[in-house]
Amino acid sequence: MPSRPERKASLIVHDDRPYNAEPPLGRLRASYRTPAEDFYVRSHGDLPNLDSKTWRLTVVGRAGLTLTLSLDDLRTGFPMAALTATMQCAGNRRADMRAVAPVSGDPWEAGAIGTAEWTGIRLGDLLREAGIAEGVDRHVAFESHDTVDGRPYGVSIPLAKAMSPETLLAYAMNGEALLPEHGFPVRAVVLGYAGVRSPKWLRHIAVQDHPSDNPIQANDYKLYPADVTAETADPAKGYTIETMPVNAAICEPERGGVLIAGRNRVRGYAVCGDRAIARVDVSGNGGRSWRQADLEHEAGAPFAWTFWAADLDLPPGEHELTVRAWDTAGQTQPALPDDTWNHKGYLCTCWHRVRVSVTD
Fold this sequence. Notes:
Blueprint: H1 4-9, E1 12-15, E2 20-22, H2 25-28, E3 57-60, E4 66-69, H3 71-77, E5 80-88, H4 94-98, E6 113-122, H5 123-129, E7 139-148, E8 151-158, H6 159-163, E9 167-173, E10 176-177, E11 187-190, E12 202-208, H7 215-218, E13 222-223, E14 239-240, E15 247-252, E16 258-260, E17 262-271, E18 277-283, E19 291-292, E20 294-296, E21 306-314, E22 317-327, E23 352-359
């Protein structure tokens, strides 16, 4: 495994502190499971330096019942679970919205996403051990070792999602211990939800009758209408982002690429939070005409992305390659970033467009 400076040098770094980076899209598309060194990094504070031997997780369950668990306790005390699934930042593709009007946050291209095999335990098994019963209207609040503006990072998810078999506490990624930037020694993996709901470097879990009051949960990652500004935004009226919508991106060729006239292969990914991808359409002329792409999806991985590929016959000239995906509910993507623009730049799901030049 490359060292952390080597891993960082191979990514597109948007911020050093906090450390936020994404891979070049060609490397992202090279493997169905994203190598840890090519997986996007989203941090809200400095990366904590934790020792797996002294690390402990506190879980507060029914009637104040408290469990304190080591990494060995998790490994030996609960059945192991391994799932291949995609994780995606709510700000993925924010750069496309930024081209419409200014937005806050890092200018992610389409690489704030990745797919891995996550290994750990099911969160529901741990919560049942803490005396929590299914079917009650509660919330599971997480706290982490990283801090944001002097407070531990904190978010919450509905208890029903926490008890679902696809929600994990993971200690390994693609068969190896988590890297520090990916949450070592233990992180939550809440499949189908925005990456913000999968906190890294866990320290504390509590079941409570209300969502977390941590600013990350209470104030951030809210979806607002286009006429709301940073000054007028009321978090109580914003929609809390959880399940991710249908999206697709072109990974190859790259923007500004120069191609040879004739048949050219176009490749990328498509993803939907909790539904499957049914179809991917690809265009070589900005969406005036379409052809269906061939799809590649791993069986038994309902929360993982779909790879797609299509051959386009491109004559000499300038071309706008375009992609849109459809999910199994018949939902597709808006044509323009203007259609869903918001001042935070969240959930950019418009048709992904890549302009290329084609020569003889």
